Amino acid sequence: MEKKFILFDFDGVIADSFQPAFETQKIICPHLTEDIYRKRFEGNINDWEEPINIHTEECRHDIDFFTEYIPRMKNEVQIVPGMKEVITEFEKNYTLIVISSTITSPIQEFLEGHDLANHFAQIMGNDVHKSKVEKMKMVFEKYGVEAKNCVFITDTLGDMHEAEKMKVGVIGITWGFHTPETLLRGKPFCLVEKPNNLLTAVADYFNVLK
Fold first, then answer.
1. How many angstroms separate the Cα of 168 from the Cα of each of 15, 36, 44, 196?
2. Distance between CA 96 and CA 10 in Å, rounded?
3. Which of 91, 95, 158, 170 has the fewest C-beta atoms under 10 angstroms from its C-beta?
4. Residue 31 is part of which domain span?
């Protein structure tokens, strides 16, 4: 039987990180609102474009997001309740990989702090590649896996668009950065409201493809 892969977004899905991330970005762009920040994730966060990319004279281009964010991440970001148990259960039957726009090392440290790092075959952050399309290609090549044997769990429309380019199916979660209404625009296999429901959703996804 072919091994199935679950690709996890990190921020919003595993880590409850919206508020610290937003507040850090607001240091750089003081005019930023939560709605504008969420809208940036409707595409790849690394290349968001006009009219979202509006800078004012107040914007601090001398501040690096990750330099400011990583200390806050270590101190403030909590794991989403229930995700540890779900990841532990998933690892029994699937290969798990993190594909994130946060850089790899703090994700690794976060997962180690929750005794979860060894549950993942690989952690692919922004330093591996800024494009999640390219990171999915890397997964296909390294593990010899096809798109049909992968599913991506995410909380943003932008991730769904990138997964679609690689023909990878998507399960959306509603406790992250984007609302259910925004996520539905990405035509996910389904939306999940609680971490524990992911177990059934992933099983259903792969069963439908048999």
1. 22, 27, 16, 22
2. 12
3. 91
4. 18-75
